[in-house]
Design a protein that fits this description.
Largest sheet: 5 strands, antiparallel
Shape: globular
CATH architecture of the largest domain: 3-Layer(aba) Sandwich
Structural class: alpha+beta
Strand order of the largest sheet: 10-9-8-11-12
Helix content: 25-40%
Bound molecules: adenosine-5'-diphosphate, magnesium ion
Number of helices: 11
Radius of gyration: 21 Å
Distance between the termini: 11 Å
Number of strands: 12
Length: 355
Protein backbone atom coordinates (compact mmCIF):
# COMPACT_ATOMS: atom_id res chain seq x y z
CA UNK A 1 0.00 0.00 0.00
CA UNK A 2 1.01 3.57 -0.53
CA UNK A 3 1.78 5.40 2.65
CA UNK A 4 4.20 7.83 4.22
CA UNK A 5 6.58 9.49 1.87
CA UNK A 6 5.67 10.62 -1.61
CA UNK A 7 6.44 7.99 -4.21
CA UNK A 8 8.69 9.03 -7.02
CA UNK A 9 7.47 7.60 -10.31
CA UNK A 10 10.07 7.14 -13.06
CA UNK A 11 7.97 7.66 -16.16
CA UNK A 12 9.86 6.46 -19.23
CA UNK A 13 8.50 7.47 -22.63
CA UNK A 14 9.32 8.21 -26.26
CA UNK A 15 11.65 5.45 -27.37
CA UNK A 16 13.46 4.14 -30.39
CA UNK A 17 10.31 2.71 -31.93
CA UNK A 18 7.81 3.41 -34.68
CA UNK A 19 5.28 4.20 -31.95
CA UNK A 20 7.40 7.02 -30.50
CA UNK A 21 4.79 9.75 -30.92
CA UNK A 22 2.05 7.59 -29.44
CA UNK A 23 4.20 7.02 -26.39
CA UNK A 24 4.63 10.77 -25.87
CA UNK A 25 0.89 11.18 -26.07
CA UNK A 26 0.34 8.35 -23.59
CA UNK A 27 2.92 9.79 -21.21
CA UNK A 28 1.22 13.20 -21.24
CA UNK A 29 -1.99 11.60 -19.99
CA UNK A 30 -0.25 9.64 -17.26
CA UNK A 31 1.89 12.60 -16.18
CA UNK A 32 -1.20 14.74 -15.82
CA UNK A 33 -2.99 12.05 -13.84
CA UNK A 34 -0.13 11.75 -11.32
CA UNK A 35 -0.07 15.52 -10.95
CA UNK A 36 -3.82 15.77 -10.45
CA UNK A 37 -5.38 17.15 -7.30
CA UNK A 38 -5.96 13.72 -5.74
CA UNK A 39 -2.48 12.41 -6.54
CA UNK A 40 -0.14 15.33 -6.25
CA UNK A 41 0.56 14.83 -2.56
CA UNK A 42 1.16 11.11 -3.04
CA UNK A 43 3.40 11.09 -6.10
CA UNK A 44 6.09 13.04 -7.86
CA UNK A 45 6.91 12.21 -11.46
CA UNK A 46 10.47 11.93 -12.66
CA UNK A 47 10.13 11.71 -16.41
CA UNK A 48 12.73 10.13 -18.69
CA UNK A 49 12.38 10.74 -22.40
CA UNK A 50 14.19 8.45 -24.81
CA UNK A 51 14.55 10.10 -28.19
CA UNK A 52 14.06 8.38 -31.52
CA UNK A 53 17.73 7.44 -31.60
CA UNK A 54 17.55 5.71 -28.24
CA UNK A 55 19.32 8.41 -26.24
CA UNK A 56 18.03 9.22 -22.76
CA UNK A 57 17.31 12.76 -21.70
CA UNK A 58 17.57 14.02 -18.15
CA UNK A 59 14.41 14.58 -16.13
CA UNK A 60 14.27 18.35 -16.46
CA UNK A 61 14.41 18.25 -20.23
CA UNK A 62 12.14 15.23 -20.39
CA UNK A 63 9.52 17.11 -18.41
CA UNK A 64 9.63 19.96 -20.88
CA UNK A 65 8.48 17.59 -23.60
CA UNK A 66 5.52 16.53 -21.50
CA UNK A 67 4.46 20.09 -20.91
CA UNK A 68 5.12 21.08 -24.53
CA UNK A 69 8.00 23.45 -23.84
CA UNK A 70 10.24 21.52 -26.21
CA UNK A 71 9.04 19.98 -29.40
CA UNK A 72 10.25 16.43 -29.48
CA UNK A 73 10.88 16.77 -33.21
CA UNK A 74 13.88 18.96 -32.41
CA UNK A 75 15.69 16.36 -30.38
CA UNK A 76 18.30 15.28 -32.88
CA UNK A 77 20.96 12.77 -32.04
CA UNK A 78 23.69 15.33 -31.54
CA UNK A 79 21.07 17.64 -30.14
CA UNK A 80 20.54 19.79 -27.18
CA UNK A 81 21.33 17.43 -24.37
CA UNK A 82 24.57 16.50 -22.78
CA UNK A 83 24.96 12.79 -23.41
CA UNK A 84 27.63 12.31 -20.74
CA UNK A 85 25.24 13.24 -17.98
CA UNK A 86 22.66 10.74 -19.07
CA UNK A 87 24.36 7.50 -18.38
CA UNK A 88 21.90 4.98 -17.08
CA UNK A 89 24.46 2.64 -15.63
CA UNK A 90 26.16 5.36 -13.61
CA UNK A 91 22.78 5.61 -11.94
CA UNK A 92 23.03 9.29 -10.98
CA UNK A 93 19.67 10.24 -12.40
CA UNK A 94 17.93 7.09 -11.35
CA UNK A 95 18.52 6.75 -7.65
CA UNK A 96 15.50 8.71 -6.62
CA UNK A 97 12.92 6.60 -8.36
CA UNK A 98 10.66 4.39 -6.24
CA UNK A 99 8.58 2.82 -8.98
CA UNK A 100 9.21 2.68 -12.71
CA UNK A 101 6.39 3.31 -15.14
CA UNK A 102 7.71 2.33 -18.57
CA UNK A 103 5.31 3.69 -21.14
CA UNK A 104 7.22 2.80 -24.28
CA UNK A 105 5.10 1.30 -27.03
CA UNK A 106 6.53 -1.13 -29.53
CA UNK A 107 10.04 -2.46 -29.93
CA UNK A 108 12.99 -1.31 -27.78
CA UNK A 109 10.62 -1.03 -24.85
CA UNK A 110 7.36 -2.94 -24.79
CA UNK A 111 9.25 -6.02 -25.99
CA UNK A 112 10.88 -6.55 -22.59
CA UNK A 113 14.11 -4.68 -23.26
CA UNK A 114 13.29 -1.87 -20.85
CA UNK A 115 12.06 -4.39 -18.27
CA UNK A 116 15.40 -6.18 -18.46
CA UNK A 117 17.34 -2.97 -18.00
CA UNK A 118 15.19 -1.78 -15.11
CA UNK A 119 15.57 -5.07 -13.28
CA UNK A 120 19.12 -3.99 -12.44
CA UNK A 121 17.80 -1.03 -10.46
CA UNK A 122 15.95 -3.46 -8.14
CA UNK A 123 12.92 -1.18 -8.13
CA UNK A 124 9.34 -2.31 -8.86
CA UNK A 125 7.76 -1.42 -12.16
CA UNK A 126 4.28 -0.99 -13.55
CA UNK A 127 3.61 -3.82 -15.97
CA UNK A 128 4.90 -7.32 -16.39
CA UNK A 129 8.35 -8.80 -16.68
CA UNK A 130 10.70 -9.70 -19.48
CA UNK A 131 9.04 -12.89 -20.68
CA UNK A 132 5.48 -11.58 -20.77
CA UNK A 133 6.58 -8.42 -22.54
CA UNK A 134 8.62 -10.26 -25.14
CA UNK A 135 5.83 -12.76 -25.84
CA UNK A 136 3.16 -10.06 -25.97
CA UNK A 137 5.18 -8.16 -28.55
CA UNK A 138 5.84 -11.11 -30.81
CA UNK A 139 2.73 -12.05 -32.71
CA UNK A 140 4.18 -15.34 -33.96
CA UNK A 141 5.11 -16.63 -30.50
CA UNK A 142 1.93 -15.27 -28.97
CA UNK A 143 -0.21 -17.08 -31.54
CA UNK A 144 1.77 -20.27 -31.12
CA UNK A 145 1.07 -20.27 -27.38
CA UNK A 146 -2.62 -19.44 -27.97
CA UNK A 147 -2.75 -22.42 -30.35
CA UNK A 148 -1.26 -24.68 -27.72
CA UNK A 149 -3.97 -23.59 -25.32
CA UNK A 150 -6.53 -24.20 -28.06
CA UNK A 151 -7.80 -20.64 -27.73
CA UNK A 152 -10.00 -19.65 -30.67
CA UNK A 153 -8.19 -17.53 -33.25
CA UNK A 154 -8.22 -16.88 -36.99
CA UNK A 155 -6.42 -19.27 -39.36
CA UNK A 156 -2.86 -18.19 -39.95
CA UNK A 157 0.49 -19.04 -41.49
CA UNK A 158 3.97 -18.20 -40.23
CA UNK A 159 7.01 -17.41 -42.36
CA UNK A 160 10.06 -16.79 -40.23
CA UNK A 161 13.15 -18.18 -41.86
CA UNK A 162 12.57 -17.37 -45.48
CA UNK A 163 14.75 -15.46 -47.88
CA UNK A 164 12.29 -13.14 -49.55
CA UNK A 165 14.93 -12.06 -52.08
CA UNK A 166 14.72 -15.50 -53.64
CA UNK A 167 12.01 -15.62 -56.29
CA UNK A 168 11.38 -19.33 -55.81
CA UNK A 169 10.88 -18.81 -52.08
CA UNK A 170 8.45 -15.97 -52.75
CA UNK A 171 6.46 -18.13 -55.15
CA UNK A 172 6.32 -20.93 -52.59
CA UNK A 173 4.98 -18.56 -49.98
CA UNK A 174 2.33 -17.25 -52.35
CA UNK A 175 1.30 -20.78 -53.27
CA UNK A 176 1.00 -21.78 -49.66
CA UNK A 177 -1.18 -18.76 -48.93
CA UNK A 178 -3.41 -19.56 -51.92
CA UNK A 179 -3.69 -23.17 -50.83
CA UNK A 180 -4.32 -22.69 -47.12
CA UNK A 181 -6.06 -19.33 -46.58
CA UNK A 182 -9.00 -17.49 -48.09
CA UNK A 183 -8.79 -13.85 -49.20
CA UNK A 184 -8.68 -11.27 -47.86
CA UNK A 185 -5.58 -11.96 -45.80
CA UNK A 186 -3.75 -9.70 -43.38
CA UNK A 187 0.03 -9.64 -43.76
CA UNK A 188 1.75 -8.59 -40.52
CA UNK A 189 5.28 -8.14 -39.24
CA UNK A 190 5.62 -10.35 -36.17
CA UNK A 191 6.93 -7.44 -34.09
CA UNK A 192 5.16 -4.13 -34.49
CA UNK A 193 2.15 -2.27 -33.22
CA UNK A 194 -0.38 0.44 -34.01
CA UNK A 195 -1.10 -1.42 -37.27
CA UNK A 196 2.26 -0.29 -38.71
CA UNK A 197 3.56 -2.57 -41.47
CA UNK A 198 0.24 -4.40 -41.77
CA UNK A 199 -1.60 -4.74 -45.09
CA UNK A 200 -4.96 -6.12 -45.98
CA UNK A 201 -4.53 -8.09 -49.18
CA UNK A 202 -7.53 -8.86 -51.32
CA UNK A 203 -5.95 -10.89 -54.10
CA UNK A 204 -2.81 -12.68 -55.16
CA UNK A 205 -1.35 -9.73 -57.05
CA UNK A 206 -0.99 -7.70 -53.83
CA UNK A 207 0.81 -10.31 -51.74
CA UNK A 208 4.38 -9.45 -52.72
CA UNK A 209 4.02 -5.78 -51.95
CA UNK A 210 2.49 -6.60 -48.58
CA UNK A 211 5.35 -8.97 -47.75
CA UNK A 212 7.84 -6.24 -48.64
CA UNK A 213 6.08 -3.74 -46.41
CA UNK A 214 5.95 -6.14 -43.47
CA UNK A 215 9.55 -7.23 -43.74
CA UNK A 216 10.79 -3.66 -43.59
CA UNK A 217 9.72 -3.86 -39.96
CA UNK A 218 10.37 -7.53 -39.24
CA UNK A 219 11.46 -10.37 -41.54
CA UNK A 220 9.35 -12.75 -39.46
CA UNK A 221 5.91 -12.53 -40.98
CA UNK A 222 2.45 -13.66 -40.01
CA UNK A 223 -0.35 -14.06 -42.52
CA UNK A 224 -3.89 -14.31 -41.24
CA UNK A 225 -7.19 -15.03 -42.86
CA UNK A 226 -9.14 -11.79 -42.76
CA UNK A 227 -12.68 -12.00 -41.45
CA UNK A 228 -15.53 -9.52 -41.15
CA UNK A 229 -15.24 -8.72 -37.49
CA UNK A 230 -16.33 -6.56 -34.60
CA UNK A 231 -13.36 -5.34 -32.55
CA UNK A 232 -13.64 -5.97 -28.86
CA UNK A 233 -11.17 -5.05 -26.14
CA UNK A 234 -10.82 -5.95 -22.47
CA UNK A 235 -8.55 -4.34 -19.86
CA UNK A 236 -6.59 -6.34 -17.31
CA UNK A 237 -4.94 -5.16 -14.11
CA UNK A 238 -3.48 -7.05 -11.17
CA UNK A 239 -0.83 -9.60 -10.44
CA UNK A 240 -1.63 -12.70 -8.39
CA UNK A 241 -5.27 -11.83 -8.98
CA UNK A 242 -6.09 -10.39 -12.39
CA UNK A 243 -9.12 -8.13 -12.69
CA UNK A 244 -10.95 -7.53 -15.95
CA UNK A 245 -12.55 -4.27 -16.97
CA UNK A 246 -15.86 -3.93 -18.72
CA UNK A 247 -15.66 -4.89 -22.35
CA UNK A 248 -15.49 -2.25 -25.06
CA UNK A 249 -16.09 -2.18 -28.78
CA UNK A 250 -14.50 0.18 -31.23
CA UNK A 251 -16.37 1.13 -34.38
CA UNK A 252 -14.51 2.98 -37.11
CA UNK A 253 -15.40 4.21 -40.55
CA UNK A 254 -12.37 2.85 -42.38
CA UNK A 255 -12.22 -0.66 -43.81
CA UNK A 256 -10.02 -1.90 -40.96
CA UNK A 257 -8.43 -0.47 -37.83
CA UNK A 258 -5.31 0.97 -39.45
CA UNK A 259 -2.92 3.58 -38.02
CA UNK A 260 -4.96 6.58 -39.16
CA UNK A 261 -8.20 5.25 -37.83
CA UNK A 262 -6.51 4.45 -34.52
CA UNK A 263 -5.15 7.91 -33.90
CA UNK A 264 -6.59 10.43 -36.34
CA UNK A 265 -10.26 9.83 -36.68
CA UNK A 266 -13.28 9.97 -34.52
CA UNK A 267 -14.05 6.39 -33.73
CA UNK A 268 -17.04 5.34 -31.81
CA UNK A 269 -16.18 3.55 -28.63
CA UNK A 270 -18.95 1.69 -26.93
CA UNK A 271 -18.51 0.58 -23.33
CA UNK A 272 -19.93 -1.78 -22.33
CA UNK A 273 -20.02 -3.39 -25.74
CA UNK A 274 -23.42 -4.53 -26.93
CA UNK A 275 -22.81 -8.26 -26.47
CA UNK A 276 -24.67 -10.76 -24.38
CA UNK A 277 -23.45 -11.55 -20.91
CA UNK A 278 -22.41 -15.09 -21.80
CA UNK A 279 -20.09 -13.82 -24.51
CA UNK A 280 -18.75 -11.11 -22.20
CA UNK A 281 -17.94 -13.70 -19.55
CA UNK A 282 -16.21 -15.91 -22.10
CA UNK A 283 -14.11 -12.98 -23.31
CA UNK A 284 -13.06 -12.12 -19.77
CA UNK A 285 -12.14 -15.74 -19.07
CA UNK A 286 -10.02 -15.96 -22.22
CA UNK A 287 -8.41 -12.61 -21.40
CA UNK A 288 -7.26 -13.89 -18.02
CA UNK A 289 -6.26 -17.30 -19.33
CA UNK A 290 -4.18 -15.83 -22.14
CA UNK A 291 -2.40 -13.35 -19.84
CA UNK A 292 -1.59 -16.15 -17.41
CA UNK A 293 -0.23 -18.31 -20.22
CA UNK A 294 2.13 -15.57 -21.38
CA UNK A 295 3.08 -14.46 -17.84
CA UNK A 296 1.49 -11.06 -18.38
CA UNK A 297 0.39 -9.07 -15.33
CA UNK A 298 0.38 -5.52 -13.98
CA UNK A 299 -1.69 -4.14 -16.80
CA UNK A 300 -2.60 -5.18 -20.32
CA UNK A 301 -5.27 -4.86 -22.96
CA UNK A 302 -6.50 -8.04 -24.56
CA UNK A 303 -8.00 -7.57 -28.02
CA UNK A 304 -10.59 -9.83 -29.58
CA UNK A 305 -12.55 -10.18 -32.75
CA UNK A 306 -16.15 -11.32 -32.90
CA UNK A 307 -16.83 -12.71 -36.34
CA UNK A 308 -19.93 -10.92 -37.58
CA UNK A 309 -21.45 -13.85 -39.45
CA UNK A 310 -21.04 -16.48 -36.73
CA UNK A 311 -20.73 -14.42 -33.52
CA UNK A 312 -17.62 -16.46 -32.81
CA UNK A 313 -15.07 -15.03 -30.35
CA UNK A 314 -11.46 -15.01 -31.56
CA UNK A 315 -8.51 -13.74 -29.56
CA UNK A 316 -6.36 -11.34 -31.58
CA UNK A 317 -3.54 -10.10 -29.37
CA UNK A 318 -2.40 -8.84 -25.99
CA UNK A 319 -0.86 -5.40 -25.62
CA UNK A 320 1.39 -5.31 -22.58
CA UNK A 321 1.80 -1.53 -22.51
CA UNK A 322 -1.58 -0.31 -23.69
CA UNK A 323 -2.02 3.21 -25.04
CA UNK A 324 -3.06 6.06 -22.77
CA UNK A 325 -3.70 8.65 -25.49
CA UNK A 326 -6.93 10.62 -25.71
CA UNK A 327 -8.27 8.03 -28.16
CA UNK A 328 -7.06 5.02 -26.23
CA UNK A 329 -9.44 2.36 -25.06
CA UNK A 330 -7.56 1.19 -21.95
CA UNK A 331 -8.20 4.23 -19.71
CA UNK A 332 -11.76 4.44 -21.06
CA UNK A 333 -12.42 0.82 -20.15
CA UNK A 334 -11.29 1.39 -16.59
CA UNK A 335 -13.17 4.63 -16.25
CA UNK A 336 -16.34 2.79 -17.27
CA UNK A 337 -15.44 0.12 -14.73
CA UNK A 338 -15.20 2.68 -11.91
CA UNK A 339 -11.56 3.78 -12.00
CA UNK A 340 -10.95 7.27 -13.32
CA UNK A 341 -7.53 7.83 -14.88
CA UNK A 342 -6.20 9.43 -11.66
CA UNK A 343 -7.33 6.40 -9.67
CA UNK A 344 -6.10 4.02 -12.33
CA UNK A 345 -2.50 5.26 -12.32
CA UNK A 346 -2.42 5.16 -8.51
CA UNK A 347 -3.83 1.64 -8.56
CA UNK A 348 -1.19 0.52 -11.07
CA UNK A 349 1.55 1.76 -8.76
CA UNK A 350 -0.08 -0.02 -5.85
CA UNK A 351 -0.21 -3.24 -7.85
CA UNK A 352 3.47 -2.96 -8.70
CA UNK A 353 4.30 -2.59 -5.00
CA UNK A 354 2.10 -5.50 -3.93
CA UNK A 355 4.14 -8.03 -5.87
N1 LIG B 1 -7.43 -11.59 -39.27
C1 LIG B 1 -8.01 -10.39 -39.31
N2 LIG B 1 -9.28 -10.24 -39.75
C2 LIG B 1 -9.85 -9.01 -39.80
N3 LIG B 1 -9.22 -7.87 -39.44
C3 LIG B 1 -7.95 -7.98 -39.02
C4 LIG B 1 -7.28 -9.23 -38.90
N4 LIG B 1 -6.04 -9.01 -38.44
C5 LIG B 1 -5.94 -7.68 -38.27
N5 LIG B 1 -7.06 -7.05 -38.61
C6 LIG B 1 -7.27 -5.60 -38.55
O1 LIG B 1 -6.00 -4.97 -38.40
C7 LIG B 1 -5.91 -4.30 -37.14
C8 LIG B 1 -4.51 -4.38 -36.59
O2 LIG B 1 -4.11 -5.72 -36.43
P1 LIG B 1 -3.37 -6.21 -35.12
O3 LIG B 1 -2.97 -7.63 -35.33
O4 LIG B 1 -4.22 -5.95 -33.95
O5 LIG B 1 -2.04 -5.34 -35.12
P2 LIG B 1 -1.48 -4.23 -34.11
O6 LIG B 1 -0.64 -4.99 -33.13
O7 LIG B 1 -0.64 -3.36 -34.96
O8 LIG B 1 -2.64 -3.55 -33.47
C9 LIG B 1 -6.98 -4.99 -36.29
O9 LIG B 1 -7.40 -4.19 -35.25
C10 LIG B 1 -8.07 -5.23 -37.33
O10 LIG B 1 -8.79 -4.06 -37.66
MG1 LIG C 1 -4.18 -4.49 -32.46
Amino acid sequence: MIGGKKKSIGLIFGGNSNEHEISISSAKTVYKAFNSEINKDLFTVKPFYINKYGDWLDSDNSEKILIDEIENKNTKKEGIFNQEKINFLQGIEFQNVDVWFPLLHGFNGEDGSIHGLLRFTKKPLVGCGIIGSALGMDKILMKTIFSNLKLPQVNYLIFQDKDLNDKQVRNKIINEILKKLNFPVFVKPSNSGSSLGISKVINESEILQALEKAREIDPRILIEEGLEVREIECGIIGNSKLLTSDIGEVIYESDWYDYDSKYHSSNKIIIPADIDSKIAKEIKDIAIKSCRALNIFGFARVDFFIEKSSNKILINEINTIPGFTKNSMFPMLWEASGLKIEQLVAKLVQISLDL
